[in-house]
Amino acid sequence: MKRALPPLNALRAFEAAGRLGSFKHAAAELHVTHGAVSQHVRALEDWLGAPLFERHNRRVVLTPAAHAYLEEIGPLFEQLAQATSRYGIPATISRTLSVSSIATFTLRWLVPRLARFHLEHPGVDVEVETSNVPLESLKGTHDVIIRGGPDTFYGYTMRPFLAEERVPVCSPALLERLPIEAPDDLRRHTLLHTSSLPRLWPDWLAKVNRPSLSPSATLTFDHFYLTLQAAIDGIGIAMGPTALVADDLAAGRLVMPFAEPRLPSRSYCAYVPLEKSADELVVLFCAWLEREGARGRTDTAS
């Protein structure tokens, strides 16, 4: 005889929400969004043909029947976990997450933090492809695409996770050799440029009322990560994005000769195909990006 089993993902969401007394806490435990838990619970209510929770503004309360139901099914989840552990079967199936990300961002921000992600989620493999191709021209299928924004693209959801500004940066050894006390002192220095961002130095110099300042030399690179590496090596002064040089500033590899003014810049955003927006692994990774972005803001503030 065929067993009449409810949707197991919906049952799992109900068990977590009922046990924790909160959709929000259930979402955190299951690494999904609050909305995903709510949808699963509604799906189970539809399947059972009866309400499971009484909804009161920002809190939910189990109905008496749902409370009795939870008391019966709750131990079954624990038995399932114990049986799985005894037979040595992994509790989760390893899966690869495909990420397309901008090259400089990947090198200077994402890669140094991925070890933390793997420590938190050892069963998840991340495959990163670097590309500066605009999202609308990107070929191939990816779970998460990291680009500047915020922008709107048909067929994608968008989640900003890291804001930044641009400010002059250089090595401390360079400042010891050629001290800088005012913008006019830049005349003695080499200004480092990136060919794809030609307006950074002109815009900054305009902000300090030195639009016609002529430096000792200029040096232009085709990739931004080369420009930043040249600054670390003491070759000249670069317009550094605060998010991507935060680790170098904290470690003393770079310093800011001027804390102000700062040029506004676009944020980093995670773009997800609509068909993957409810995928638990995708939601988990995007939430991790947001936590890391917030961690950076906290570290900078402190």
UniProtKB/TrEMBL annotation:
<keyword id="KW-0805">Transcription regulation</keyword>
<keyword id="KW-0804">Transcription</keyword>
<dbReference type="InterPro" id="IPR000847">
    <property type="entry name" value="LysR_HTH_N"/>
</dbReference>
<dbReference type="GO" id="GO:0006351">
    <property type="term" value="P:DNA-templated transcription"/>
</dbReference>
<dbReference type="InterPro" id="IPR036388">
    <property type="entry name" value="WH-like_DNA-bd_sf"/>
</dbReference>
<dbReference type="InterPro" id="IPR058163">
    <property type="entry name" value="LysR-type_TF_proteobact-type"/>
</dbReference>
<comment type="similarity">
    <text>Belongs to the LysR transcriptional regulatory family.</text>
</comment>
<dbReference type="GO" id="GO:0043565">
    <property type="term" value="F:sequence-specific DNA binding"/>
</dbReference>
<dbReference type="Pfam" id="PF03466">
    <property type="entry name" value="LysR_substrate"/>
</dbReference>
<feature type="domain" description="HTH lysR-type">
    <location>
        <begin position="6"/>
        <end position="63"/>
    </location>
</feature>
<dbReference type="GO" id="GO:0003700">
    <property type="term" value="F:DNA-binding transcription factor activity"/>
</dbReference>
<keyword id="KW-0238">DNA-binding</keyword>
<dbReference type="Pfam" id="PF00126">
    <property type="entry name" value="HTH_1"/>
</dbReference>
<dbReference type="InterPro" id="IPR005119">
    <property type="entry name" value="LysR_subst-bd"/>
</dbReference>
<dbReference type="InterPro" id="IPR036390">
    <property type="entry name" value="WH_DNA-bd_sf"/>
</dbReference>
<protein>
    <submittedName>
        <fullName>Glycine cleavage system transcriptional activator</fullName>
    </submittedName>
</protein>
